[in-house]
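Example record used in the benchmark description.
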Amino acid sequence: MTDYVQLTKIFETFEVTDKPDSFECCSFGHINSTFFVTVKDVKKYVLQKINTSIFKNPDELTANIVGVTKFLRRKVEAMGGDPKREVLHLIRSKQGGYYSKSGDGGYWRMYDYIKGAKTYQIVEDPILFYNSAVAFGNFQKLLSDYPADELHETIPNFHNTVSRFTDFKKALEADVCGRAASVQKEIDFVLERENVCSFITDRIASGEYPLRVTHNDTKLNNVMIDEVTKEGICVIDLDTVMPGSVLYDFGDSIRFGASSAEEDERDLGKVYMRLELFDDYAKGFLKGLGGSLSEAEMLGLPMGALVITFETGIRFLTDYLNGDTYFATHREGQNLDRARTQFKLVSDMEKKMPEMNSIIEKYL
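Model output (structure tokens):
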């Protein structure tokens, strides 16, 4: 359902009086189908079809987003900020609630578009990475007193690395596509590091790391950056907001943003973790947090980067073994290339862990 007439019918199920002039398909993102709606060249909306094969309970997904955004809006207003720019705003549906169902059974939602801001897919300038870190740290700080246990798990065990390792072993045993024999080097890399998987989960279980509201997909492109000031003004894509550890959010940012290469780079000689960007992000993240973390959490941040990078590599390799059924691919072997870049980053982080620890201690 992507033509103008059908999209207009969906648009008109929401509580807006505007008439759409055009729809532009967003080419970024692996999961949901997203369209930018322009009205009279002066206003925009973001219309999105929820991928229910990934997010199987739209009611729980929506409840999380509504709860968190309402909470954030109150915080921003109390601080004298601008909630229209600093917090996502879901538009109510005429069907009731905050999503609409289309005739084919699809679930749709719509947001106001944030003016004067844009997202970046790569770190074009280190200041962008630093400012995104401040934004994600501030997101954590503002939600530090939100009851995390009231949130639904939109994707169960999403950042449970032990569970991801178990899924990998199942995929390896089944080997439904007969691909395991050709990737033994990558398989051995994972098996040799099984002990890494429980680093965060063990500390959550023991209470050393508290459960917090975590974003769980803290890539640079999930922060709206002001076009003039280059500051991060709004954290977006809240589908994976769930209870978790702050190490998840820090780790995913470093995995994605501090890498020297694209996520599916074939030449592994080009892949390493840029220590100067790790420094920039750590500085900004801790500034945004404003002292809201425990010392144990702060000291664990470097390992968070390694664990989440390793976990992501496991997920890519698992999907490759399963026949590329989860992550969108655009060429043969893309998930395998993605796994290999993550494992190269893990190897580099292992070597640079003393420097990473020193950087965190510098900003405590």
